[in-house]
Amino acid sequence: MDEIAxxxxxxxxxxxxxxxxxxxxxxxxxxxxxxGSTVFVSGEADKGxxxxxxxxSTWT
Length: 60
Known about the structure:
By secondary structure, the protein is mainly alpha-helical. The chain has helices at residues 2-11, 18-32, 49-56. The chain is globular and about 35 Å long.
């Protein structure tokens, strides 16, 4: 049961982070043009930092 619940929660869309995702996409576009960047993701606990980075890895 826990495995199924984990899979379902992973596939739910992370909401409220459109601005942050767009910025990550912009920076990734720069990396693809050989203009590297370092990105630090910080914030309060349980605000979706790990999820945002994990989800962005699907297009990086």
